[in-house]
Structure formats: C-alpha cells, structure tokens
Specification:
This protein has two domains: 123 residues, Alpha/Beta hydrolase fold, catalytic domain (Rossmann fold); 49 residues, no CATH class. Helices cover 35% and strands 21% of the residues. Strands 1-2-4-3-5-6 form a six-stranded mixed beta sheet, sandwiched between helices. A hairpin with a 2-residue loop joins strand 1 and strand 2. Helix 2 crosses helix 3 and helix 4 packs across helix 5. The longest helix is centred in the last third of the chain and has 21 residues.
Length: 178
Amino acid sequence: MLRLLVISRPVSVAIRRRGNTRGCPRPPIVLLHGFTGDASTMDVLAERLERDHTVVVPDLMGHGDSSGPASAHSVDAMAAHVLEMVAALEIETPFDLVGYSMGGRVALTLACTRPDAVASVALIGASAGLADPTERAERAAADDALADALVADGLEAFVDRCSGLPDQQDAHGGHCRI
C-alpha cells in the first residue's frame, strides 16, 4: 500500500510498507532503490522478505512519488529523510538496511552517521568509494560525463543505456553504475 508521509515541510516521502507488521521478532528491513528508480524496483526483493519481516520501501527524494526541493536530493539529505521516515512510522531501531546503487550510498551514509539506528547493512552495486586519489578523480570525470549525457540525451535514453549494464562503459566514456 502506498502512503505519502510529510516528514518535514516541504518534503514528503512516498512509502510502501509490506509484510509482517505486527509482532515480528526480527528487525524491520528498509529497502532503498537506485538512481532513476522508485520503490517498485525493489518489489522482487520485498516479496521474498515480507513473509518473515516488516519491509518498508520509500521512494527516495526526486524519485517516484516523493517530493521536495532540489536541496533535498543529496545523499546526506536522503539519509536524514530515511531516519525521519523511520521515526514517523515508529519503526523500531535498530533496523536492517538494504541499498541498491545510489540507495546503497544513502544506506552507507546512514550507517556511518547513525550506527545506533542500523542493525545491518547490505549494499548491492555500491561501495564506500575509491581510496586512490587518481582513481577517484577518473571516476568523478566519468560520472560528470555521464551526467552531461543525461542532460543532453534525456532520462529515457539514459535509462535505456544503463539498464542492466551496471559495470559497462557507455558511449560517453562514463560508467552507468550510479
């Protein structure tokens, strides 16, 4: 069931809550989707977990039915919104957190800034980043090229190019992993 939750004006988060929502002895699981996705992209995983867990899947800022100003679209802001959502829904902490791609960056940020709130973190297609400064600069340049292509070619072309190809270089020299 879709629910729109206003966590702080003018930010609202669309949430899908599923599964065993009463008396479940296991920690709740929050699933975070990737860039250009929404909560529905986590449906297959949510369906597998909902029998034995409370599963909460938000649309992150700038995605799906969530809304807020552009300043709410940073990874740090999204991590804060997840915490506000958890508090507003009275979800017990610590909770388990799963993040795919951009959602993985949000999950990692949340786990690092509020380790008391997170029981476990599973990252899919995400990492803590590159330690080597040269590799980090190359990745930043590739990400900039990908962002330029997104602006130039539009969202549909970006999604078509990147769907299902998370580690392959695109025609603009950038990687589609976000």
